[in-house]
Amino acid sequence: MSAGQWAVILGASSGTGAAIAVEVAGSRGLDVFGVHRGRYLDQAQQVEREVAATGRRVIMHRGDAGTPEGAAQGAEALLAAAGPRSVKLFVHSIASGSVGHFLSGEKGPLHPKQVERTFNAMAHSFVYWIQALVARDLLAPQARLLGLTNPLTESLLHNTGLITAAKAALEIYVRHMAIELGPKGHRVNLLKFGTVMTPALTHVYSPEALARLEAAHCQMNPSGRMCTVQEVARFVAVLLGDEVDWFNGATIDFTGGMTLRLLDLVLNPPGRG
Predict the structure, then answer these.
(1) For the chain, which has fewer Cβ within 10 Å, the N-terminal or C-terminal residue?
(2) Strands (E) located in 178-244
(3) Domain extent for 90
(4) Domain containing 144 — which CATH number?
């Protein structure tokens, strides 16, 4: 990589975003501009230390990445620190959505504010940030822009309809951005991977529920285990290579065969002769 190139990571304080930040700094020599809401301050400081230990510059920008205003403010801060044509990698790793049912549920139907907030964070902000980066001429030559998704878009898991809908919208945004930015030499893709253990999961689920979740995923995955955030991060670093330049507008399956195994379990449940 050329000197002075940056990775912009939305949701960089923990989980997959944090792992990607540390990986691309260490293996690809990118400086890191991480955006976070301040929910995991200790983890954000740890990411800052780990990136700095690689010898790369790091800025952990605190703000709401899921709004047009937040995107504009973040892009302005990055422009002041890094200058134009400096962003080699942009990763949308925001996990901020509401679960529940559209018509019923213990807390009642999903509220329009929950719908708006979920779509802004998990879909629309992908567009807001790219617009802000392009308007300020921040994309480096042959920049890579990446959204993250999961196999929920292929399921009807009872209370994740809103998140699934937002992820489906994100996939459409990726395709259109790939068409618009392709002639400029940039590449826009979507990386799909299965559930990984993150602080967000531990915040939502009890230890007992997490154990059941892990056991279920070990059964679903042909490898008999869950994917790790480090594995996802290493693959993101691979996507920076010239060898994968032809990926554009793609939804890249990094589930390890999880959806194949899930279908097999439905058709051939354990104990069925």
Answers:
(1) C
(2) 187-192
(3) 6-205+229-257
(4) 3.40.50.720
Q: Per the structure, how many domains does the chain have? A: 1
| 213 located within any domain | no
> How would you write the pLDDT of the chain (273 residues) with one tens digit per residue?
445 899 999 999 989 999 999 999 999 999 999 999 888 889 999 999 999 999 999 999 999 999 999 999 999 999 999 999 999 999 999 988 888 888 876 777 989 999 999 999 999 999 999 999 999 999 999 999 999 998 877 776 677 889 999 999 999 999 999 999 999 999 999 999 988 877 766 766 678 878 887 888 788 888 888 889 999 999 999 999 999 999 999 999 999 888 776 555 445 555 555
Helix (H, G, I), strand (E, B) or coil at 44: helix
Residue with tokens 């990445």: 65
Residue with tokens 């901020």: 96
In angstroms, how far is CA 85 from the centroid of its own chain? 22
273 in any annotated domain: no
254 with 230: CB under 8 angstroms? no
What 3-state class would DSSP assign to 56?
A: coil
Question: What is the CB neighbour count within 10 angstroms for residue 79?
Answer: 18
Q: Are 133 and 125 in contact (CB under 8 A)?
A: no
25: in domain = yes
